[in-house]
Design brief:
- It is a single chain.
- The chain is built from five helices and three strands, in the order βααβααβα.
- With 97 residues, the chain is of the alpha/beta class.
- Strands 2-1-3 form a three-stranded parallel β-sheet, with helices on both faces.
- The protein is flat.
Length: 97
């Protein structure tokens, strides 16, 4: 029996595809391209969460056993992070200078 091959997407709203049609999100487009260039069918696992910061994602990676298992099993992993951190830093700067 052939093992499953995984594409794991971890990250923030960019990973979720917030604001775009599901077929046009970067994860969907990357998944479609990857399917064309790999010899095995890929299973997509999208673990994006809107609003997550780098710290939130790191915490999930450290504490979520099912996510850790997916990381071990995945042949392709994409990670998007930092946009929310930048927004928070900008807001803090606007307040504190």
């Amino acid at each position: 029996m052939e093992k499953n091959h995984y594409y794991l997407a971890i990250g923030d709203s960019l990973t979720v595809g917030y604001g775009v049609h599901p077929d046009l999100s970067f994860v969907s487009r990357y998944y479609q391209l990857a399917q064309q260039h790999v010899a095995h069918p890929l299973m997509l696992e999208n673990r994006g969460i809107i609003g997550e910061t780098i710290g939130d994602i790191l915490k999930r990676l450290k504490q979520d056993a099912s996510l850790q298992e997916l990381v071990k099993q995945s042949q392709i992993i994409t990670l998007t992070a930092g946009g929310n951190d930048l927004i928070l830093a900008g807001k803090q700067y606007a307040l504190d200078k």
